[in-house]
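Glycosyl transferase family 11 (Prevotella histicola F0411), 288 aa
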Amino acid sequence: MKIVKILGGLGNQMFQYALYLSLKETFPQENVTVDLSCFHGYHLHNGFEIARIFSLHPDKATVMEILRIAYYYPNYFFWQIGKRVLPQRKTMCTESTKLLFDKSVLQREGDRYFDGYWQDERYFIDCRRTILNTFKFPPFTDDNNLALLKKMDTNSVSIHVRRGDYVGNKLYQGICDLNYYREAIMKISSYISPSMFCVFSNDIEWCRDNLESFIKAPIYYVDWNSGTESYRDMQLMSCCGHNIIANSSFSWWGAWLNQNSSKIVIAPKRWINLKNCGFMLPSRWVKI
C-alpha cells in the first residue's frame, strides 16, 4: 500500500498528484491512494483545486489505512503540531529538506506514506503522456482569455513574475529579481524573435513599471484571472510558444504542460535559498 499526502497550492498539488499517478503505474499490484485530510482547516489557497479544475477522482485512503503506516491528522492544525513532535515511522517517506532526489520512491515495494512536494520530474517523467492527459484544462469561455489565445503564435512568450508572498521571504527573495528577467528576455530573444510577451503576476503594477523598458515586442498584462479562476493563468502559459518562469511551481507547470515541441523554457538556475540544495530543473530547460 502506498499513500501520497496532498496539500498546498495548485502547483504543488499537481506535483503530488503526478507522483500518485507514477506510483500507480510503477506498482500496479499495490493499492495506491491519496490522503486529503490536511485540507480541513487549510485556508492558504483554494482547497483541493485539481479535483475541480481537472475533474479528478483519486482513490482516497481511509483513516485506518493511514494509521497503519503513518499518523492520521483530522485537520491542518493537528498536522502542523504532529509533524514536529511525533517520531518518523519506518513506513513514512518524508521529502529531504534539501530537496534531494530519492530514487527509492520508485523502487521500494511495500507500505509507504509519502509526505512532501516532490518537485522533480524524475519522479514521473516515465508517465508523461498519462500526466498530460490528466492535466487537461477545461476550454476557455470568457472573452479576455479567448481574445488573448487567438493572438498567440509559436513565437509568443509567457513571463511569470511572482512577488507578493515572495517579497521579504528569505527562502525565495533575490532569485528572480529584475536582473533575472532582463537576462531571460535577452536570452530568449537570442533564440527567437518574440511576437508578443504575456505577463502573469500577482503584482502587475511592478511589472508595468519595470519590464517595459527592455521588451521590444507587444506586451499583454494578464490581470483578469483571479480567485478560483486563477488557474487560467497557468493554462494560458501552457498555450504560449515559449516560457520565462519564476521559481514557482505554478509557472513550472505552465512550462511543462506547454506541448510546443520546439519550446524554449528559461528558468532560474537557483530555485530556493538553501545551501547544498538538490533541486533539479528539467535538463532541456535553459538556466540563468
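The first strand starts at residue 2 and ends at 5. The chain is about 35% helix and 15% strand. ok done for today
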